[in-house]
Design goal:
338 residues; alpha/beta; DNA polymerase, domain 1; TIM Barrel; 2 domains; eleven-stranded mixed β-sheet; two-stranded parallel sheet; 15 strands
């Protein structure tokens, strides 16, 4: 199997070129085409000689592949299906919003976290994506240069595949990579300790934590990871870091009628997050098969939001996007055993 070039930084590409008898500057040219120009076609890399390209193609592959399917929502959200092996596929979503165009990135085929309300988690884990699979989602969508932001909120738990995710972030933020500010990237996690601490120490990206219920026993009923990584330990760790400056932390809170949406839950959330500079995003639950709960009524969500805001916890209701193409939060399932 040929080595994939996508995901290698400029120095690594130069070293690979040197190994096959090419000048190191060819590696820098490759980096410029792949990352600065987002060009994933050998024929368009016009400043690399034909002979050099032949040597590269004999030894390496770009690691870029087009989506195998796509769907467009009535609200402009687009979903793309990418094959990542002979049997596994993942989905990513592009969300346009005025002057922003955000890519919701997948990091695993399936997920091993097992959250009962998530279609990805309910299908189980089918493998980690490598760094090329992750970055391919950035390069192979239409008009990749127009992307403004990225959220690692697609299929999988990013901190369960941290080595590949961190390498992808390194390419995204490197001056000779995409050149993005870390502020353009958000990573969403269930709270995988101690990998979360490593992420907080190593990266400057924004963080979103899947919370959904402030009571440990109730959260455990829906989220098995509560047993391994208790929410209170996650919040305790976060309170050791400063989120008053460039980096932000938010908490994702999906609203379920009769399960986590009353005054008792709001007050417990206020106590839990007290003293932490953060935001709570309320998310409308989108109905999935064989699941007992519905989304909280709109009036209940507004009451919940207002109670948090009135007690000093910044809270907003996130707009739902892409539900008609199964692209909204918790609805990504990909396609496995193709």
């Amino acid at each position: 199997m040929k080595t994939k070039l996508l995901g290698k930084n400029s120095e690594e590409l130069s070293a690979l070129c040197k190994e096959v008898g090419l000048k190191p500057f060819v590696g820098r040219q490759l980096s410029d085409w792949l990352y600065a120009k987002r060009v994933a076609d050998w024929d368009r890399m016009v400043n690399i000689s034909k002979a050099s390209k032949q040597v590269l193609q004999d030894h390496f592959e770009l690691g870029v592949s087009a989506p195998v399917a796509s769907a467009l929502s009535s609200d402009g959200t687009a979903k793309y299906l990418f094959a990542v092996s002979d049997t596994e596929s993942v989905e990513s979503v592009v969300i346009p919003d005025e002057d922003r165009r955000t890519l919701c990135v997948s990091s695993q085929a399936g997920c091993r976290m097992g959250c009962r309300f998530c279609m990805t988690g309910r299908q189980g884990w089918h493998g980690n994506l490598d760094v090329a699979d992750i970055l391919n989602q950035f390069l192979s969508i239409p008009d990749p240069l127009s992307l403004s932001n990225a959220v690692f909120m697609g299929m999988g738990e990013p901190l369960d595949n941290y080595e590949a995710v961190s390498k992808a972030i390194a390419v995204l933020t490197a001056p000779d990579g995409f050149g993005w500010s870390p502020k353009r990237i958000t990573l969403s996690t269930i709270g995988v300790l101690p990998v979360l601490k490593r992420f907080l120490d190593e990266e400057r990206c924004h963080l979103a934590v899947s919370l959904h219920n402030p009571f440990p026993d109730e959260r455990l009923d829906m989220m098995p990871v509560q047993k391994a990584w208790p929410l209170e330990d996650v919040v305790s760790l976060l309170k050791q870091y400063d989120f008053s400056g460039q980096r932000r932390v938010s908490f994702e809170y999906t609203m379920f009628a009769g399960w986590n949406d009353d005054k008792r839950h709001a007050d417990a959330l206020i106590r839990l997050l007290g003293g932490l500079e953060c935001r709570v995003n309320l998310i409308r639950f989108h109905k999935i098969p064989d699941f007992p709960y519905d989304c909280s009524p709109e009036v209940r969500m507004e009451e919940f939001k207002n109670r948090l805001n009135n007690h000093g916890v910044v809270c907003t209701i996130r707009a739902s996007r892409g539900e008609d193409i199964l692209a909204a939060c918790g609805m990504l399932a990909g396609q496995h055993s193709r």
